Protein backbone atom coordinates (compact mmCIF):
# COMPACT_ATOMS: atom_id res chain seq x y z
CA UNK A 1 0.00 0.00 0.00
CA UNK A 2 1.16 3.51 -0.75
CA UNK A 3 2.43 5.49 2.21
CA UNK A 4 0.71 8.47 3.83
CA UNK A 5 1.24 12.21 4.01
CA UNK A 6 4.29 13.22 6.02
CA UNK A 7 6.03 15.93 4.05
CA UNK A 8 7.11 19.51 4.19
CA UNK A 9 7.73 21.07 0.79
CA UNK A 10 4.43 20.26 -0.97
CA UNK A 11 1.01 20.97 0.53
CA UNK A 12 -1.28 18.07 1.35
CA UNK A 13 -3.72 19.10 -1.40
CA UNK A 14 -1.06 19.12 -4.12
CA UNK A 15 0.41 15.86 -2.87
CA UNK A 16 -3.04 14.24 -3.02
CA UNK A 17 -3.73 15.67 -6.48
CA UNK A 18 -0.41 14.40 -7.83
CA UNK A 19 -1.25 10.92 -6.54
CA UNK A 20 -4.69 11.08 -8.17
CA UNK A 21 -3.51 12.26 -11.58
CA UNK A 22 -0.43 9.95 -11.64
CA UNK A 23 1.10 12.01 -14.46
CA UNK A 24 2.30 15.56 -14.33
CA UNK A 25 2.31 16.79 -17.91
CA UNK A 26 5.39 18.83 -18.73
CA UNK A 27 4.97 21.45 -21.43
CA UNK A 28 8.21 22.63 -23.02
CA UNK A 29 6.69 25.96 -24.02
CA UNK A 30 7.86 27.44 -27.31
CA UNK A 31 4.65 28.68 -28.90
CA UNK A 32 1.55 29.82 -27.00
CA UNK A 33 -0.96 28.52 -29.57
CA UNK A 34 0.71 25.10 -29.74
CA UNK A 35 0.76 25.01 -25.92
CA UNK A 36 -2.98 25.74 -25.84
CA UNK A 37 -3.69 22.88 -28.28
CA UNK A 38 -1.55 20.46 -26.29
CA UNK A 39 -3.14 21.40 -22.95
CA UNK A 40 -6.65 21.20 -24.42
CA UNK A 41 -5.82 17.70 -25.65
CA UNK A 42 -4.44 16.71 -22.24
CA UNK A 43 -7.41 17.94 -20.24
CA UNK A 44 -9.83 16.35 -22.73
CA UNK A 45 -8.12 12.96 -22.60
CA UNK A 46 -7.18 12.98 -18.89
CA UNK A 47 -10.07 14.36 -16.84
CA UNK A 48 -8.16 14.07 -13.56
CA UNK A 49 -5.27 16.35 -14.64
CA UNK A 50 -5.39 19.56 -12.59
CA UNK A 51 -1.64 20.31 -12.24
CA UNK A 52 0.59 21.00 -15.25
CA UNK A 53 4.24 22.06 -15.36
CA UNK A 54 5.53 24.63 -17.86
CA UNK A 55 9.30 24.60 -18.35
CA UNK A 56 11.36 27.77 -18.58
CA UNK A 57 13.67 26.51 -21.31
CA UNK A 58 12.97 29.10 -24.00
CA UNK A 59 13.12 32.91 -23.91
CA UNK A 60 9.33 33.20 -24.37
CA UNK A 61 8.39 30.38 -21.96
CA UNK A 62 7.68 32.61 -18.93
CA UNK A 63 5.43 35.00 -20.86
CA UNK A 64 3.63 32.03 -22.44
CA UNK A 65 3.14 30.52 -18.98
CA UNK A 66 1.54 33.74 -17.70
CA UNK A 67 -0.88 33.70 -20.67
CA UNK A 68 -1.66 30.00 -20.11
CA UNK A 69 -2.59 30.71 -16.48
CA UNK A 70 -5.18 33.23 -17.71
CA UNK A 71 -6.39 31.00 -20.55
CA UNK A 72 -6.90 27.92 -18.33
CA UNK A 73 -8.10 29.29 -14.97
CA UNK A 74 -9.12 25.85 -13.64
CA UNK A 75 -5.62 24.38 -14.10
CA UNK A 76 -2.95 24.93 -11.48
CA UNK A 77 0.29 25.64 -13.28
CA UNK A 78 3.80 25.21 -12.03
CA UNK A 79 7.06 26.41 -13.47
CA UNK A 80 9.88 23.98 -14.17
CA UNK A 81 13.51 24.10 -15.26
CA UNK A 82 14.34 26.62 -12.55
CA UNK A 83 18.14 26.57 -12.65
CA UNK A 84 19.25 29.31 -10.27
CA UNK A 85 18.12 31.45 -7.37
CA UNK A 86 17.94 34.60 -9.49
CA UNK A 87 15.42 32.97 -11.83
CA UNK A 88 13.37 31.74 -8.88
CA UNK A 89 13.35 35.21 -7.31
CA UNK A 90 12.18 36.86 -10.56
CA UNK A 91 9.08 34.66 -10.84
CA UNK A 92 5.73 36.11 -9.77
CA UNK A 93 4.93 33.45 -7.14
CA UNK A 94 1.27 34.58 -6.97
CA UNK A 95 0.62 33.56 -10.59
CA UNK A 96 1.94 29.99 -10.22
CA UNK A 97 1.17 27.15 -7.86
CA UNK A 98 4.36 25.12 -7.68
CA UNK A 99 7.97 25.27 -8.80
CA UNK A 100 10.38 22.56 -9.99
CA UNK A 101 14.12 22.33 -10.56
CA UNK A 102 15.93 19.52 -12.38
CA UNK A 103 18.66 19.56 -9.73
CA UNK A 104 19.46 20.44 -6.13
CA UNK A 105 20.14 24.18 -5.94
CA UNK A 106 21.44 24.84 -2.43
CA UNK A 107 20.60 28.57 -2.56
CA UNK A 108 16.94 27.68 -3.10
CA UNK A 109 16.50 24.49 -1.08
CA UNK A 110 17.91 26.05 2.10
CA UNK A 111 15.18 28.73 1.92
CA UNK A 112 12.51 25.97 2.07
CA UNK A 113 9.98 27.61 -0.29
CA UNK A 114 6.46 26.18 -0.21
CA UNK A 115 5.46 23.96 -3.14
CA UNK A 116 9.01 23.83 -4.43
CA UNK A 117 10.17 20.45 -5.76
CA UNK A 118 13.94 20.12 -6.11
CA UNK A 119 15.51 17.62 -8.46
CA UNK A 120 18.04 14.98 -7.50
CA UNK A 121 19.55 11.79 -8.91
CA UNK A 122 21.97 10.46 -6.28
CA UNK A 123 21.50 8.95 -2.84
CA UNK A 124 23.69 11.75 -1.43
CA UNK A 125 21.38 14.39 -2.92
CA UNK A 126 18.30 12.52 -1.66
CA UNK A 127 19.82 12.39 1.82
CA UNK A 128 20.79 16.07 1.76
CA UNK A 129 17.25 17.09 0.80
CA UNK A 130 15.73 14.65 3.30
CA UNK A 131 17.81 16.15 6.12
CA UNK A 132 16.60 19.63 5.14
CA UNK A 133 13.01 18.40 5.48
CA UNK A 134 12.09 17.80 1.85
CA UNK A 135 9.71 14.90 1.31
CA UNK A 136 8.90 15.25 -2.40
CA UNK A 137 11.75 15.20 -4.91
CA UNK A 138 11.91 15.16 -8.69
CA UNK A 139 14.06 12.16 -9.67
CA UNK A 140 15.83 13.30 -12.82
CA UNK A 141 16.91 11.90 -15.20
CA UNK A 142 15.04 8.79 -14.09
CA UNK A 143 15.68 6.30 -16.86
CA UNK A 144 19.41 7.06 -17.14
CA UNK A 145 19.98 6.13 -13.52
CA UNK A 146 18.52 2.62 -13.33
CA UNK A 147 15.43 4.45 -12.18
CA UNK A 148 13.12 1.78 -10.86
CA UNK A 149 15.89 -0.27 -9.28
CA UNK A 150 17.34 2.75 -7.51
CA UNK A 151 14.01 3.92 -6.10
CA UNK A 152 12.98 0.41 -5.05
CA UNK A 153 16.31 -0.14 -3.28
CA UNK A 154 15.85 2.91 -1.04
CA UNK A 155 12.14 2.74 -0.25
CA UNK A 156 12.73 0.95 3.06
CA UNK A 157 15.56 3.32 4.00
CA UNK A 158 13.74 6.60 3.30
CA UNK A 159 10.24 5.61 4.35
CA UNK A 160 8.74 9.08 4.03
CA UNK A 161 10.53 10.32 0.91
CA UNK A 162 8.51 10.48 -2.31
CA UNK A 163 9.62 10.88 -5.90
CA UNK A 164 8.40 12.23 -9.20
CA UNK A 165 10.50 10.35 -11.78
CA UNK A 166 11.04 12.46 -14.89
CA UNK A 167 13.23 12.10 -17.95
CA UNK A 168 12.68 9.20 -20.32
CA UNK A 169 9.30 8.32 -18.84
CA UNK A 170 6.79 7.14 -21.43
CA UNK A 171 3.60 5.12 -21.65
CA UNK A 172 5.59 1.87 -21.86
CA UNK A 173 7.60 2.35 -18.64
CA UNK A 174 5.44 4.69 -16.55
CA UNK A 175 3.63 1.90 -14.68
CA UNK A 176 6.95 0.37 -13.62
CA UNK A 177 7.55 3.60 -11.72
CA UNK A 178 3.96 4.14 -10.58
CA UNK A 179 3.92 0.66 -9.00
CA UNK A 180 6.66 1.72 -6.55
CA UNK A 181 5.54 2.76 -3.06
CA UNK A 182 7.76 5.85 -3.05
CA UNK A 183 6.53 7.29 -6.37
CA UNK A 184 3.55 9.65 -6.26
CA UNK A 185 3.42 10.42 -9.99
CA UNK A 186 5.64 10.63 -13.06
CA UNK A 187 6.59 13.66 -15.13
CA UNK A 188 6.09 13.27 -18.88
CA UNK A 189 6.38 15.51 -21.92
CA UNK A 190 4.64 13.02 -24.22
CA UNK A 191 1.22 12.78 -22.57
Write up this protein:
The protein is an alpha/beta fold. The chain is 36% helix and 17% strand. It is built from eight helices and nine strands. A six-stranded parallel β-sheet has the order 5-4-3-2-1-9, sandwiched between helices. A three-stranded parallel β-sheet has the order 6-7-8. α6 links the parallel β6 and β7. It is globular and about 45 Å long. The N terminus is likely disordered.
Give the SSE map.
Elements: H1 12-21, E1 23-27, H2 32-45, E2 51-55, H3 61-71, E3 76-80, H4 85-90, E4 98-100, H5 106-109, E5 116-117, E6 119-120, H6 123-132, E7 136-139, H7 147-154, E8 162-165, H8 174-178, E9 186-188
Summarize the structure in short.
With 191 residues, the protein is an alpha/beta fold. The chain is 36% helix and 17% strand.
What structural class should be given to the helix and strand makeup? Answer: alpha/beta
Global geometry: globular
The biggest beta sheet, please?
A: 6 strands, parallel
Count of strand segments: 9
Low-confidence stretches: 1-7
The number of helices is 8
Helical percentage: 25-40%
One letter per element, helices H and strands E, the order comes to HEHEHEHEHEEHEHEHE
Radius of gyration over all CA atoms, rounded: 15 Å
Q: Which percent range describes the beta-strand content?
A: 15-25%
Mean pLDDT: 93
Please list the strands of the largest sheet in the order they lie side by side. Answer: 5-4-3-2-1-9
Measured between the Cα atoms of the first and last residue, the distance is 26 Å
Amino acid sequence: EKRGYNFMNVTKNYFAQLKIQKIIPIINSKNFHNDVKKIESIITNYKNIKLIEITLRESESYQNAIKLVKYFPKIKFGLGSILKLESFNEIDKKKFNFFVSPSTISEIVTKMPQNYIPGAETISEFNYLYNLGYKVIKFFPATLNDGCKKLKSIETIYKDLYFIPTGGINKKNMNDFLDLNNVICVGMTNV
